[in-house]
């Protein structure tokens, strides 16, 4: 059994000008970085030039994104909710990798108005299920109308999400080491 810290990629999914995602991502990673069982790497989609359509051959940024997905052992996706869905930039990034996602856990931090981004998360769950990941039941979700990030409930939600992500991440790490994943 590998006892090294779990490598977690926190994917900031919005690339919109004036976005809140980078602030939410920083808030989340600020809490996650205190854990000794995790190593956090922020993967902000604004730092990638991903094409609007998938070309016949991957671009350098598509390859770089897929490599980061491959190197990570678990993921936390920070997503807004736009019109009851998640942004196209996030879908495009997800599609830049395929096998690299398999047999790894995915957690969600969402934000939006009233529904707290939970419609976006439910759609993402179906996509990540197709990619053979394990999605975490509990999420961290923010209603942008009330403007609070640091409530006791939110801090507890982060702990709950990361506890589950760490358990699944370590279990799946051991399973992948014991035998190759087959679908």
Describe it.
This protein is an alpha/beta fold and 183 residues long. The chain has one domain (6-178): 3-Layer(aba) Sandwich (Rossmann fold), CATH 3.40.50. Helix content is 39%, strand content 19%. It has helices spanning 21-32, 60-71, 88-94, 118-130, 152-178, and strands at 6-12, 38-44, 74-80, 105-112, 134-135, 140-143. Strands 1, 2, 3, 4, 5 and 6 form a six-stranded parallel beta sheet that branches. Helix 1 links the parallel strand 1 (6-12) and strand 2. The model has no long low-confidence stretch (mean pLDDT 95). Pfam families: FMN_red. GO terms for molecular function: FMN binding; oxidoreductase activity. It comes from Amycolatopsis keratiniphila subsp. keratiniphila.
- Please state the average pLDDT score: 95
Global outline: globular
The separation of the N and C termini measures 23 Å
Looking at the overall shape, the CATH architecture is 3-Layer(aba) Sandwich
Number of helices: 5
Helix content: 25-40%
* CA-based gyration radius: 16 Å
- Tell me the strand percentage band: 15-25%
Class inferred from helices and paired strands: alpha/beta
Q: Give the SSE order as H and E letters.
A: EHEHEHEHEEH
Pfam families: FMN_red
Protein name: NADPH-dependent FMN reductase
GO cellular component, one term: cytosol
GO molecular function, one term: FMN binding
């Amino acid at each position: 059994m590998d006892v090294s810290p779990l490598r977690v990629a926190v994917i900031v999914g919005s690339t919109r000008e004036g976005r809140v995602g980078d602030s939410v991502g920083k808030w989340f990673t600020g809490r996650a970085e205190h854990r000794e069982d995790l190593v956090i790497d922020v993967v902000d989609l604004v730092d990638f030039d991903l094409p609007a359509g998938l070309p016949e051959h991957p671009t350098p940024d598509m390859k770089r994104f897929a490599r980061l997905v491959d190197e990570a052992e678990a993921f936390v996706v920070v997503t807004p909710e736009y019109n009851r869905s998640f942004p196209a930039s996030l879908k495009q990034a997800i599609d830049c990798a395929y096998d690299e996602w398999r047999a790894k856990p995915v957690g969600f931090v969402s934000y939006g108005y009233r529904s707290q981004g939970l419609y976006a998360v439910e759609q993402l769950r179906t996509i990540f299920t197709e990619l053979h990941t394990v999605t975490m039941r509990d999420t961290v979700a923010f209603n942008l109308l009330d403007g609070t990030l640091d409530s006791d409930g939110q801090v507890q939600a982060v702990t709950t999400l990361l506890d589950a992500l760490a358990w699944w991440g370590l279990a799946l790490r051991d399973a992948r080491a014991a035998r190759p994943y087959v679908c």
